[in-house]
Amino acid sequence: MAAIYSGIHLKLKSAKTPWGDRLKLARFAWISHQCFLPNKEQVLLDWVSHALTGYYSKKLQFGDEIVEGLWTYLDDILHSKKLQKLIEKGKIITIRFTIAQIINDRICECSDKVPLNDNASSLPTVLSCCRGILTSPAFSIIYTSKCELLVDLLCKLSSLVCRKLKSPEALSSTQLFDVLLLVFNQYLVVQRQQHNQSRVFLQVCGSLFQPFLLLRHLLSLRCWTSEDEVMVWQHLSKEICNKIQTALHNGLFHADFLNSYRDELVQSECSQEKKMSFSKVWAAPVEMMLVKLADVDFFGTDLHFAVVAGSVPLLYKLALESYCRDGNHLLCFHIFTRFFDSLRFPKIKSAEAGESVDWNPGLLALDQLLNSIFSSNIYNIAVDKIRCEGVQFTFYSKMAEMLLTYPRPAAPAWFRCLKTLVLLNHLIVEPNLDDLVSLAWIDADVSDSRVKRAQDMLLSTLLQTYTKLRQLPRLFQEVLDVVSRPAADELRQPILSVGLTKKLCECLLEVPAGQVLDIWDLVLKSQECLIPDLARNSDLALKVLTMSTLLNSILFNMKSLDAKTPVPIVLRTQLLMDKMAQAVAMPLFHTAKEPDCEDSSSWAARATSAGLILCYTWVEVDHVLKLNCGKYASSGSQAGKAEGEEWNVHCRLPQVGWADWRLMAGVSGQNSELSCHFLQLLALQKMRRIMMQPGAQTEMEDASLRSAAAFVVGSGKTAVKQAGARGWDGELSALNEETSAVAHWHLLTANLVLLVPYLPEEDLTYIADVVMTNLLLKESREVGQDPGNSLFIPTLCENLLNSALLPEMPTLHRAVLLGLMARVRNLVPAPGLGAAMRLLEQLAGNGDAGQEDGSRGSSISVTLCSRPTASQGIPSLVAENILSSFQSPVSHTLPEQQLDLLLRLLDILSALRLDSLSCTDHLRCFLLLVSLVTTLKPSSAKGNAAKCLQVLSHCYFLLTVLQTGTNGNAVFKLAHAGDVLEKLAAPLFRASSELAGCVASPAWPGFLRTVQSFLTHFIRTIVERKQSMCLNLEQFVAFLSDAWASSKVKAEWKLVAEQLLTVSLSTLSRVIVNTLQQSEKNRHTSNTLPSLLTQIIGLLGPVLQSHLDRSRSFDQTLAVPCVTALLEAELCPRGERGDLVAEGGSLDQAGLQHSDLYQSTCSQILHQLAASTDDPEPLRKQLEFLQVFCSASELCSDGDIETSVPSILRAVKALLAAPWMTTHFVQSLDTQLIGLLTCLAERCMDQQFSLIMKSITQGLEVTNLWKGQHLDVVSSLTLTTLLLKCPLSGDAEKAVWFTAPQIIAALLVLSKEAALDQPWACKIILLSLETLAALIQQGEGILSNPHHVTLAFDALLCVPLDHLRLDEYGSVFRAIHEVLFSVLQSHPKVLLNAAPSFLKCFNRLVLSVMHKGRQKGVGEKGMTTDNDVILQCARLVERICTRIASKAEEFAMFSSFTVAQYVNELQKVTLNADVKRHLTGGMYHLLDLVTESDLRFLNTSLQMGVREVFKELYKDYTHYHKSKKQGEEKYTA
């Protein structure tokens, strides 16, 4: 072995051995077990380290391949499992420090700003070596013991990552980021262990500060693409940013540096105090950071300002986190000033080309800095003024002046900065308030939505601030001054937006009425000053119009005067009303109508619009004041009287004569959309005033109402026809030519209830046509989803359609319905429909002609909806011919585009609430739907057939709605019910070939259900009417029989026809069976229905059998309900049927006709019952069949093993044990499962039921869990719970309760076993507790042994409440609560001896909910979702406490211990307010049971802090609960 050692060692060191051979020899020596070297691992590691050191120190020379091989060899050694195992065993292996320096140098080479050289190809290997060193504690010491190397590595890696992020190449690997994150973790550990904080500061500020900030900026602002590695931008980048923040916080703003920051910035007496040793090294930490931030060469000219702006808010936030304490607010302000200076705003604003400088980064940074100032309460107005001579106020004032001197209204941050300054102190902006109002409000050109939101926030803050200061008139004085200045008013934005109007409304409701009157007076004075120079001045007219709009918003949102308003306020209001009318509105009208003025000019239109706004405002305010304030005396008492002129449709000012008003109204309506809008508003106000007058309306008033209504509708017809896609936000200032149509339609739809009674038929038709046109627009859906609050005509029409008011306006409702029907008739030409409509009109005319003169107004509605009498004389020939118009319908196949339009029309029709139509409209709609059903024919194309199927489904659904409506019987006045059924069913059989392709589609079962629903309601109506019931039903059965016979004659098999026959016959049989069962209960006999039912059975059986024979698969959705209906029909309690009576036999003697069908169906159901499904409906149908099947003695017997009771029970257990079966799914099947189990229990023999109970108890054994058969346990638990819900009696009930003690014991063992944290534990525990609660509830008076009940407490104590998910915790908590509440409610005597055990379980719940309901810390996630669950648990605790308080005898001795535990835990945690409210309410009920001796005991035994908590609780109990209870007892009999 010595020879081997000498040879290898010499060859590795020999200069004669080529480096390639040395590398191969080293690899062999590492991996070979036959090469024995003393301390081989250390020797080989030293050799490769020496080789790399020699190469990079220029002492050794070899090729690049050898260098890469050496790095790879070193990487293999560092990551070898062999080396890791040796180190774990305690073997000491070290690596040279020079390797760390070499790794740093290689990374530095790759991070240089020159193009990557050849050494960069080995970078992944170098990074892997670095990772191997840092992950091994034995090797990482070369970095951790020499912190400079670690800092250098972190700096070089950060620079390398920055270079990678700057390049356009995708980041396809996570290696570099993983290593950087690993180095960060190592450095943060070393940083925390450093005792010399001055050294840490110098390291961070000197070497790491700039790379960190640049790296954070590049990571935050990089536009990540799909080519980048997902792990990098989703996780690693965020982790690295967090590490950077932590390193900067610990290195730059340590608590030991506080005095140094004070010495540098505050210049106070503390600088003379004794300084720490590290403060001698550096005395200006902020200056050092600012110098680094100002280094343009490092960051680059293009990135420097952005990096500084993104870094300064972070640094200031870290400084506040460390130093924002009491007494340090001035220091924090000075740090802010230095950081603000670093943003270089003075340098920016000194530039001549100010527009070319991007202020956005600096403004964003300033916004964040000011937010930090405001949220941290750095600025205290009183302290700054008294102690600091207003240094902060002066600085903020200069900042505000700078922002207003160089405005940037295109940047949202500019508005936010001003908003924060206003919040700090309104006096900061007070000297420049006019500039603020001008630049940020009146003259600001804002179009971007983000900027608009920021502007609204600033202006809302301004309004709210001056409202609180009670200086709102001062603000509006500035607004009016700015508006009155000479400016390009055409370019100004509307003065009020939607959000600002809402805020103005809130503010006006808070200020005193006198200040609102001051604002009112200011606006009127401003307008008075402008009116003399108004003529031919468009700008002044626009200013007056703006002020009128502003005044309208102010007066409409102010608080109305009432009976409590002081008289001086009322008198001043009257004066202002007179002033508005006489001094402003009247002069505006007179100026606009001067003879030498052109009425068509823009200034005249604006002056007229301003006058109309003031006129309408005066009328509305006058009306409101007269209604609410009795002290107010109006000067317009004659304004509401109607006059005879046709043009008199408006309210007017009392000072304006009717002749002048007629002229002004005519001119105004032609000038502008705003004037037209207000003329419509005045017309509506005229209508309201006339309607509010007492007494009956005169003919003149009625004519005036009709004229006003026609004017409102007619004024906007042209605009609505030319309406575009632009919306309207509801503000008057935004009303123009593009938005006038939306404004008019909004006004119209909002006042339809007022207008409709006075509109002629042509106007109603026009409104209905506009509604239908806009509802059918393809863009209506998208328009309704506008992100803003804008209004659109299609949206308004949609809202009208869905409004509950539309059916309350029958004339408009009928107009919309008729318009829709006309569109359907144009889309689907049906000759029979036109003939039917004409016959219907003829019937209506005859009905009217048959009336006497006194009742000429009677219509077809009266004729058809009343009971027929001989005097009415309905022309039967006409009635019989209406449906006969569809005898030979012409079929039409529509293209898919028209079918889509037809579907939309039917959707609109379904929204019109057809269940409350008049008889005439009901019949029109019914005939329309009949025409669609009989006319439409699908094509052979699959897409067309699917669309047609949807149309037919809609039609049958709407027919069902009509049939269930108030006038459903009107159809039977026109034709026989059998004819109607035949007409509606026949088209489906004719189109069965074309619909065959839709059978496999998901929509087909829904279509069959819709048809079945229609047939059910229609046939049920036939039965309930009892008029020719048997004849109509026999006619329908004959039709179905003919359809079956014709399908058998033809050679081709039609699946659709068979399914339709099956559905129709099963529906008919169900209705008849239900009728017979009901008549049996009422002892009302009928001989015809049983024979008809026998005929249906004879028809339905072969149809079903044929369908099942020809279908390849067993269709559960269709076949099972139909087989169930057939079986119910055969088991119908109407004992004798026609054929059997004739033979003198009975049903029992004859047996079931289709027993083989039932047996095979049952076998297939049992075979498929446990198959996975997402829809519970098929399972319900199968369980319903099994229930009916078990009720037949000749079917469910022991003769057939496959369908016997044990087989059915096994299938049910397999269903409940299915892996996909959830608790919610079982609950949805509860009714069917309970019915089936009840039927099985009644059908079983005693021995069989005993075996069933034995199998259930065997399924509850804990050995099943040990065998891994937990699904069997779940099935047995669910089956036990369901069995306890069944209404059992006799021996079955005795058998259940005989095994109840055994079941309780098994539940206890299951709960203990499940508590061992198994994957299925929660489900087992929940089902066990649910079964236990059911046993205790149902066992009241039956479980005589108290021990069996007290076992429940042992089960509850072993249930875990910790480490559960939130949903699991809530479910387990509710289950435990149910068990405890069941014991309280059903077994009170048990508590006489078991109260301590009960309270032990209850106290676990209380402590658990207190732990879960504690308030979250700053770093924890919020309780948004937790609150609901925990709050519900707290309510359950309060519920049990209330119940315990009613059991004073059992719990009087122990309630004090529960209160003691509660206050003891309450002293440790801070509860959420809502949770604490419920828990405290529960404790109040327990304190009702505490006696005086218990109180003394608690005050003595509780610890000092806990005692204070208890005293506070008892004080609140005495104040809030005990006094209330004593008051209730005082008045309780």
Structural features, described:
This protein has 1533 residues and is mainly α. Helix content is 69%, strand content 0%. The chain contains 74 helices and no strands. The longest helix is centred in the middle third of the chain and has 27 residues, at 602-628.
Task: Note the main attributes of this structure.
single chain; 1533 residues; mainly alpha; 74 helices; disordered C terminus
- Round the Cα radius of gyration to an integer and report it: 45 Å
- Terminal Cα span: 109 Å
For the largest beta-sheet, the strand count, sense and barrel status come to: none
Chain-averaged pLDDT:
81
Principal-axis shape: globular
Low-confidence stretches: 113-118, 268-281, 348-356, 638-647, 779-787, 846-879, 1134-1150, 1417-1425, 1527-1533
- Beta strand %: under 5%
Q: Would you report the number of β strands?
A: 0
SS content category: mainly alpha
Number of helices: 74
* Helix content percent band: 55-70%
Question: TL;DR?
Answer:
Helices cover 69% and strands 0% of the residues.
Chart the SSEs and their pairings.
Layout: H1 2-13, H2 19-31, H3 40-56, H4 64-78, H5 81-88, H6 97-111, H7 123-135, H8 137-144, H9 147-166, H10 175-193, H11 197-221, H12 230-252, H13 258-265, H14 285-293, H15 296-299, H16 304-323, H17 329-342, H18 345-350, H19 360-375, H20 381-386, H21 391-405, H22 412-424, H23 433-442, H24 449-468, H25 472-484, H26 498-510, H27 513-530, H28 538-557, H29 567-592, H30 602-628, H31 658-671, H32 673-691, H33 699-715, H34 717-721, H35 740-750, H36 752-755, H37 761-775, H38 780-783, H39 793-802, H40 810-827, H41 831-849, H42 860-865, H43 876-884, H44 896-910, H45 919-935, H46 942-963, H47 977-990, H48 1003-1025, H49 1029-1049, H50 1055-1081, H51 1088-1110, H52 1116-1130, H53 1138-1143, H54 1147-1150, H55 1155-1168, H56 1176-1190, H57 1205-1216, H58 1223-1228, H59 1230-1243, H60 1246-1259, H61 1263-1266, H62 1270-1285, H63 1291-1298, H64 1300-1314, H65 1321-1338, H66 1346-1357, H67 1366-1386, H68 1391-1412, H69 1426-1445, H70 1448-1451, H71 1455-1466, H72 1473-1487, H73 1492-1501, H74 1504-1530
